[in-house]
Each structure stands twice: as C-alpha cells, then as structure tokens.
C-alpha cells in the first residue's frame, strides 16, 4: 500500500503513514492512484454537501469550496497561479517562463486569475447544488486528476530532476492508459457527452499552450490542468 499512501500524502491533507519506503518505482505506481484519490475527495464533498443541506445554497457552496481547497492543500491552485504568472510575464520565452514558475512570489496576474477561478468554481458549485447533481461533484476531482495521467502519457516533462521527473519516468504506461480510458468511460456513462467533451477540449488546449510556450509540461502545468478540468466538468454539467 506504499504507493497508495504516497498518493494520499502528496495530493491531500489526509493523515497517512509517514515512514514510507520511497523509490522511483513506488513514485511511479502512486500516480496510478491519483484518480482514486480524486474519487475520495469527491466522496467527501458529497458527504459534506448532504450534511449542509439545511443551510442556504450560496453558503453551502462557499463551505464546500473552502473544504475543497483545504483537503488538497491548495497544491493545484499554486500550480495554476504559477502558470498564469509565467504566461503573462514570460514574454514568449520558454526559459523566462520556467524561471517565473520557480519563483515563489505571486504576481498581480496570478492573484486576479485565482480570484476569478475560485469565483467561477463557487458559481458552478451553487448551480450544481441547486440541481442536486451530486454525481458531477463526485467525479469532477477524479477527472481532474485523470488529466495529469493524460499529460504524463502524451507530453514531455521539461525539468530533468525532481519529483515530477521521477513520477513521469517511472509511471507504468500500460496501466495508466487503462485507468485513463476507464475513467473517461465512467464519465461518459455518468455525466453525459458535453461535460466529458469539455474535459477533453480543456486538456488538449492546455497541452497545446504548454507545447507552444514551453515545449513540454512541468508540475505547475499538472496543477493547472487539475483545476481547469474540475471547473470544465462542473461547467459542462451546468450548461447541459
């Protein structure tokens, strides 16, 4: 279970065994559990929403969003913020964009982008709760983390050293493809065509942007794609 607990420890704030045997093989295997971790987060969101049905929907959506950010430790929001800063200040230079992504400082563009993203997420959450579309709330975090697998399988990773490189290189490709296809089929069967189409288009768009600007992806791009795919899933449900 080391690989599973590594995934829990990396993607959530849920307590997990600390003294884990960490090697490249375990890191690669842990990626296979990312969709399952997303499903776990989605299940907690559904349970919380059911427990909060006695309060007003806007407040319920706000509390769900706060919990959503808390349970993931803001990990993917940080990647999204770094990407928006890099896109605004990179001046179409791959090297400069990568330097901005590594800079821990947050610029005004990143701040504005985070506010707008969270506002959009709160709005669609409100609609999801009004329509009681709990299946979408359950599956959105799973599909967001499936997007990481999609990028790992299809796009070169740029940084030669570090955690992201080890994860990508040690990822069991055949098993990852099977899990990715299974999750997409689950999405089609439970959410209908439009939300899954939004997800696929979002992944293709982010991949195209990353290849055009950087020539590949980084951990920050993985974080950004999780956030944007989650929003695309809920937005597709609301529009449908």
In short, what is this structure?
The chain has 240 residues and is mainly α.
What does this structure look like?
This protein is mostly helical and 240 residues long. It has one domain (2-239). The protein has helices at 2-11, 24-31, 34-51, 57-71, 75-89, 94-102, 108-130, 134-154, 163-170, 173-191, 193-213, 219-239. Helix 5 (75-89) packs across helix 7. It is globular. The chain starts with a helix and ends with a helix. The mean pLDDT is 90.
As a whole number of angstroms, the C-alpha radius of gyration is: 17 Å
Can you count the beta strands? Answer: 0
Helix/strand-derived category reads mainly alpha
Q: Level of helix content?
A: over 70%
Total domain units? 1
Order of secondary-structure elements:
HHHHHHHHHHHH
Largest sheet: none
Number of helices: 12
Q: How much is the average pLDDT?
A: 90
**Uncertain residue segments:** none
Give the N-to-C terminal Cα separation: 39 Å
Shape by Cα distribution: globular
Instruction: Tell me the strand percentage band.
Output: under 5%
